[in-house]
Amino acid sequence: MLSYKAIYVIVLREFKRFFRQKGRLITTIARPLIWLIIVGSGFVHLIDVESGANYIQFILPGIIGMTILFTSVFSTISVVWDREFGFLREMLVAPVSRVTIVIGKLISGTALSVFQGALLLVVAPIVGLEIGVADILLMLFFMTLVALAITSLGLFVASFLTSLEGFNVIMNFIVLPMFFLSGALYPVDNLPEAIKFLSFINPLCYGVDAFKHVLLPGGGNLSAELPLYVDIFFVLTFSIVMTFLSALVFEKRK
Amino acid sequence: MNVIEVEQLVKSYNSVKAVDGVTFNVTEGETFGFLGPNGAGKTSTINILCTLLGFDSGNAQVNGYDCVKESLKVRSSIGLVFQEVTLDNELTAHENLKFHCYMYNMSKRLANERIDEILEVVGLEDKRSTAVKKFSGGMKRRLEIARGLLHRPKVLFLDEPTLGLDPQTRSNVWEFISTLKGSLGTTVFMTTHYMDEAEVCDRIAIIDAGKIIACESPGSLKSSLRGDTVYIKTSDDGRACVELHEKFNLSARKIGSGLSIIVEAGEKFIPKIFESLETPVLSVSMKRPSLEDVFINLTGKEIREAQPAAQRSPRR
């Protein structure tokens, strides 16, 4: 039983908060550009490419993945934030089901991430990647899947936490490894076997791989590493399971 | 008609009973108060009635709905003002109220109508587009009470509605609540540990260590004391106590660093103390019966002394 009006107003609130917190807005726009410019141009001459994408082009899908990762995770911080500042109670005493609240938070986290990721597509032509309308639509679709997967994971974790401090600790142990094991900065294939398996349970790894399919179609040693259908299947399954779990946890934890 | 019915309610945290077999009813239109020290079980009871907290045994009904089985129906028929501020600071007054209306499934038109109306009632109509973070403590409280009334609840729950406010703002908030009550006829269930606030209630339940130890109107609670309270401080309270018993047949209670004695006419009794008592008297004061005295009489301690025991309900 869902209340659409409640979902609408929860999403509306998150968007208003996002655009009013200027610092957050600036950080989320500046961070990917800093990575692209500084890390990208620093490594571009160090890394040999036989053919296909160069290093700056290579990290664009990864940086889009990173932006989605950070935006999604930090949008779920709002659950902890709301709990700490009491606003969560205003939602919990409203006559709507817990699932309604979870879905509102999922939609807002996902939408904000996709919005951020989409802004970065503007960079693609600047670094010399050709993207057409079909590519943009495909990217929007994949970004939505990835954002949903990460937001639902973040929501699941956040629903256990009662303090912002705890959130920061846990998220640093999840977010940074997820980013470094996603294939965003180097191909996953280069990782030692012992930690490679971690990449294979990392939804961001599949997400970034899907982005590479769209943005780096040229082949070469820096192109996508997995079949596209595997990427879609994993991310989709992961989102569904996590959404279900976070709804369940929210329901149980009154 | 009973708006709230609670029967033998029990709620434990680990092995501590925060609510220990509480039974009471609140009738329609009544202002009912829960008076007790921090950790007495007030907030746990209110959380149970608002369906935010489960309980171990007993029965709780609000507006005829079961607090466990029909939690959504309970929630849509009650309004709530919490101890702590639960507004979104980043949003404006109007946006906070709009959020509430939509959560309670109101149409846009109805929401705007009600918001305009209630902002005027609470005197914040010129602050509608101001971010809540710029509000003072009193303004936030007024906005929260306004929000609690937007969906026209049958019962308004106020959990320590004036906690952390300065005395003047406190009395403004109370004036405001009683005006609202007069015009809307809402049943009010409130908790407080301020005695003067409890005076506005039609009936008060005094709660201590999870149990209701008295439940009556403020008037009859006070008349149960039958007299004025005289507080004296002496150089030797033990001896003074014995003397009072021998000479006046009065039993004094030791309260803090002095003695309290209940007598029928305090102003006539005070001169007699100086005449008869051999123990040097350091200071004397007298009070007409107040709820504070009722509380002391019932629990043997001052409400501020009564420190929160381990059963303080954990933050959610």
Your description of this structure?
With 254 residues, chain A is mainly α. In chain A, 75% of the residues lie in helices and 0% in strands. Chain A has one domain (4-252). In chain A, α3 (55-84) packs antiparallel against α8. The longest helix of chain A has 30 residues, at 55-84. The two termini of chain A are 18 Å apart. Chain B is an alpha/beta fold and 316 residues long. Chain B has eleven helices and 14 strands. The radius of gyration of chain B is 23 Å and the shape is elongated. The two termini of chain B are 33 Å apart. Chain A binds chain B through residues 3, 5-6, 8-9, 13, 16-17, 20-21, 83, 85-87, 89-97, 162, 254, and chain B through 50-54, 72-73, 75-76, 78, 80, 82, 84-91, 95, 98-100, 102-105, 147, 315-316.
Number of strands of chain B: 14
Poorly predicted tracts of residues of chain A: none
The largest contact between protein chains, plus residue counts on each side, is:
A-B, 25 and 31 residues
Number of helices of chain A: 11
Q: Approximately how much beta-strand content do the residues of chain B carry?
A: 25-35%
Number of strands of chain A: 0
Q: Cα-atom Rg of chain B, whole angstroms?
A: 23 Å
- Look at the structure and give the mean pLDDT of chain A: 87
First-residue to last-residue Cα separation of chain B: 33 Å
Strand order of the largest sheet of chain B: 6-7-8-3-9-10
Number of helices of chain B: 11
* Helix and strand run of chain A: HHHHHHHHHHH
Overall number of structural domains of chain A: 1
How much helix is in the residues of chain B? 25-40%
Describe the SSE topology.
The complex is a heterodimer of chains A (254) and B (316).
Chain A: H1 4-20, H2 22-43, H3 55-84, H4 87-92, H5 98-120, H6 123-126, H7 133-158, H8 164-180, H9 193-200, H10 203-215, H11 228-252
Chain B: E1 2-13, E2 16-27, E3 31-35, H1 42-49, E4 57-62, E5 65-66, H2 71-76, E6 78-81, H3 93-103, H4 108-121, H5 137-149, E7 155-159, H6 167-184, E8 187-192, H7 195-198, E9 203-208, E10 211-216, H8 218-223, E11 228-234, H9 237-248, E12 253-255, E13 258-263, H10 266-276, E14 281-287, H11 291-299
Parallel strand pairs in B: 3-8, 3-9, 6-7, 7-8
Antiparallel strand pairs in B: 1-2, 1-4, 4-5, 9-10, 11-13, 11-14, 12-13
